[in-house]
């Protein structure tokens, strides 16, 4: 190995460690690595910035806008709602719901689909006494499977398409992946409807847990001089045996009293930290002298007149809120909303609201104005998963909604017939949306996830550094030396497993960019079709089922479904193995 190869390898290993430890946002970490590679002279300025003009990356940006326009109409949500109402049995409902969801995910970004459908499914389940946990992981998995069907189904496919073009190879057509994607999706859905359904936990819905099993929110109550029970013990003050609520700590100046005993005396100025049912926490505010700390001037009483909404939001893995406390973030001034409770699955957070350091998947219960959803429903910082109606001022007319859907279908037709490339078709669609004023430039900017684009564009430079220094060739030779005696099929399984491992601990696009140079080197050494290797890597990079952090949609349903990390392993590991065996065997017979 040369010194340059060793330097790049150490840099990559450091990057992996930082990403796994969640020490910083993924896009910032990968962009930092890109800058180091450029400053060290391994990459020229043009090579470092090549990802920012890559066709695949720019197509992802345009697809964010197109998907946002279609979602904004609300027509797909309405159709899904009507479709669900006719369902009866849980498994029949799953089939009725997730087959079309997978089909839609083949042509639309799956993140907004899951964000939109999560509250709809939760409410449907709770109304019928069905555990939402039986439906929410399948919702995420169904959209991931559907994204494998076409080129535009997921950003990963477009990234690999862009890389292939950079390598001077033929890219994917719209339906290159379909021969693998449809069988994988059908087999995956059959698993979810049968064995997977049995493996899913039976976590009760929110309305049921109100009565039996509290969702553990953290909230802070301030004791004022008006409280009639000052000088009395916790038990005498009636704060001990509250329905579904537990007093875990009292903060008194610089002193923290935990655990709280029934004999602990309540004093003016005490901050009471409760965990449990948010409905009971709201009832406490009715007691004179107890004030709910929300970090905002609005209170729960404002909910009655409709001027304030109670919003449930899940912290994104790409969020700028990560690794900072709510107080440090100045949440109220930043979003004009108060955090009244925080829920973290399977973990009791022993801290007051302002001191809680946020992590991906945390559920935030917010008190926010009626315009909150209009401002932040597409924020990169969190996913709004409350069943809130979009304000009339934000809704498109039905005609505009149908026009956007027809326009999308028309663009798909032009790509299918070979009249336009995917990039040109999506660029034309966005131009038409702007000209006919279905969206404004400000709307278009809101729909784009710039942090995702930064991550993807930066990853291209890292892939270039691997090829330029010879690290990709070295890695390919190492893999071939081990796998050649076992045959081509074994090598395909090894490439799949390597890609899938990276996508579970890093991100799907990053995994694709790192492994594809290895795959192309292997294809050239073995004199086999690189397209088959590229398809294999595309499927493996998308097939993130084993952890909640590997794919955004898994994270979105993590909190609302009340899941634990182990639930993803139990349900996702068999599915991951099924998808791997199916995909590798199909690819082997088609391309090799």
UniProtKB/TrEMBL annotation:
Keywords: Membrane, Repeat, Transmembrane, Transmembrane helix, Transport. PROSITE patterns: NA_SULFATE (PS01271), RCK_C (PS51202). It comes from the Bacteria. It is a multi-pass membrane protein. SUPFAM superfamilies: TrkA C-terminal domain-like (SSF116726). It is found in: Membrane. GO terms for cellular component: plasma membrane. It holds the Pfam family TrkA_C. One of its GO terms (biological process) is potassium ion transport. The keyword Lipid metabolism does not apply. GO terms for molecular function: monoatomic cation transmembrane transporter activity. Its main location: membrane. Residues 206-290, 298-382 form the RCK C-terminal domain. The chain crosses the membrane at residues 6-21, 28-45, 57-76, 97-121, 141-160, 172-193, 402-435, 447-466, 486-519, 531-551, 571-591. This is Sodium:sulfate symporter. It comes from Oceanobacillus sojae. The lineage of its organism: Bacteria, Bacillati, Bacillota, Bacilli, Bacillales.
